[in-house]
């Protein structure tokens, strides 16, 4: 059990805090002050990280705000449900507690460097915006009332004095103007409005109309979080001594690089992928495999061998794809056609059986996720990350025949280190004929986070297409 | 402007006897005794052999003076206040050495006016192009005081073809990079692409209130400077540039035909444009659009052009006041925005001139050396400015002012 109380703020706050979470929106002023298991600690963070990673890739893919919102709302529904007070049969406190816990664990993971802090703040602020926009307006008003945002209401006389000036900024008709309430805040609180010259400034005060109030709140959220992260960063060295957490946190901070893997690991037999035979792999590789697995496959075919990590990565991928142990032995035996049966049995068969959990400690090993592949040393690794630029370029052209515009698009993502976005983009391009549009990702806007997810979605699409075609023919 | 305008011997004497260390110290420090704003402040030196020495910092003014005299830099620049002393940067734990404060700075450089000025180009500057700078100073000075409410503005001539603005208000000191970027964008009107009109309007609404007073003043500047002095639309290139900014193809064609082969001056061309606008009915939307375009063109030609990158980041270095410009030998002196119009860059003392003054003056020994030269009024100007900053700071510390926004 781990006590999250390492904030230097005395424990007398516990009484004040109590178990209740009155609002759906949260500025995360108080850390979770209760015992929590390592498992809950990690899973709350992982679920939140999935959503944040998707927010990041939405930004990398230039999604419009509405699209981003739809995608993220769907993701939140899945991983990070947070219902409004009106929802029935939902343990609101529990949801809000998890929300708070996940947030604070990720603070620990992302406070370590300027870069991580910046990205975390950006993603969290986006999440907050989405929740704010979707929040019930009565609840939201209550939440706003619960905090002091330090704004000054503009009196009628002052408002009248600046009427002409105010009207040049805000699209209000004269009778609306009479009704509109204005707030005054220091201009530093609304830099985004100042940036776009969308606010009236006088003597360092910004006159913000009621409907732009959210701008102040987002800004407040952002600066608040930035400041808190700096404080957390300063306490980090003390926490690093706790060996139970270090591994978990290190692992989490990798999450932004690769996205968080979805659950493809432990369900090898998906309904639509039963009984793949050894001889089908060639065709499947060309049609459905992501770049990394395609690359492994080609290498295997060209060299008639594959290094240990290559076999492990590719072998587990095939296992999860649906290749049974019998078929796997056939597949590998045929692939290594330059060695004798004896050598094969001695050197490789055991390992193959081992990876299927039939030897040694009999563990059911999951396939490697994008995150693991990306952070491996390369070889085989992720082509988008580990190939040289020229090599990747020619590999993309020869494997998928990308047009130069598409190629440019993909390479740009690679250049900005958005490797999974590049992969997702390739998926979209190569599945355009099945009606996949830019921004769709591997279904409902999700990015690629696992090679098996890529392959399975691709096969699903084809199956749907075939069924549709079959239905057309009477 | 020969090289001996700034010979090492002259620089040596200048740093030993003339440079106003104490005033610079007060200005950076905001208080009479050393505080973080001085001791944790980065000073960066440009040495004669093109070597840049960064992350220097000093505990007090004497240490600062000794090092400057020892290094004899061609010039030095002022950076931000960091979380710890810049000279201990290497011993700071990674990620804990960060900029926390610095003056809000602006840089206006004549080169940004090259597309429109007709008298000089690139590094040159004459009395005539100074009018652009004068207009920019007046607009910015007013806008920043009125809209942002800052009071402690120090304008400094950059020694050749530009001017710097340093703002030392407590709030301005601690602006984040994001806030700095916001204020820069607020004050930027002219687009990078000269052929595009400024993007400042929301639909058909009138000019934003922040630009209205600027326009009122710039309309005069435009009439004098652009139409007469610089005669910007005289050449074919100039008049084409003007036509590109007019959104009405009928008028553009008419004017282009009228002006072909004829070399009427800018004032006449502008009149012709205005006459064309009047061919549309009063209160018609076409006319309103053209009047908006006319206002935009005035701003395009006269509104301040900022070197944006200088202002956007807290950790940008900027040349310190009272340094010597290495090419011209002129001192980077403070300038009073109220008399900016009559300021003559050529009248700014050079280092050679100051030292000659010092040699000729055999008067009393009781004063600081700078008091015996024409540097005196400029140093006094800075000292007065410092006094106001320190008074303000003292008031805040006494808690007399409510700062809880």
Task: Write up what this structure looks like.
- With 474 residues, chain A is mainly α.
- Chain A is built from 24 helices and six strands.
- Chain A has three domains: 2-144 and 220-258, Up-down Bundle (Transcription Elongation Factor S-II, Chain A), CATH 1.20.930.80; 152-216, no CATH class; 278-472, no CATH class.
- The longest helix of chain A is centred in the middle third of the chain and has 27 residues, at 213-239.
- Chain A starts with a strand and ends with a helix.
- The relative contact order of chain A is 0.10.
- With 405 residues, chain B is of the alpha+beta class.
- Chain B is globular and about 70 Å long.
- Chain B starts with 7 loop residues before the first helix and ends in an 8-residue tail after the last helix.
CATH superfamily of the largest domain in chain B: DNA primase, PRIM domain
General shape of chain B: globular
Q: Identify low-pLDDT runs of chain B.
A: none
Rg of chain B, nearest Å: 24 Å
Rounded to the nearest angstrom, the distance between the terminal CA atoms of chain B is 52 Å
The structural domain count of chain B equals 2
**Assembly state here?**
heterodimer
Number of helical stretches of at least 4 residues of chain A: 24
**Low-pLDDT runs of chain A:** 1-19, 261-273
Query: Whole-Å distance between the termini of chain A?
Result: 63 Å
Protein name (chain B): DNA primase
Family (chain B): Belongs to the eukaryotic-type primase small subunit family.
Keywords (chain B): DNA replication, DNA-directed RNA polymerase, Metal-binding, Nucleotidyltransferase, Primosome, Transcription, Transferase, Zinc
EC number (chain B): 2.7.7.-
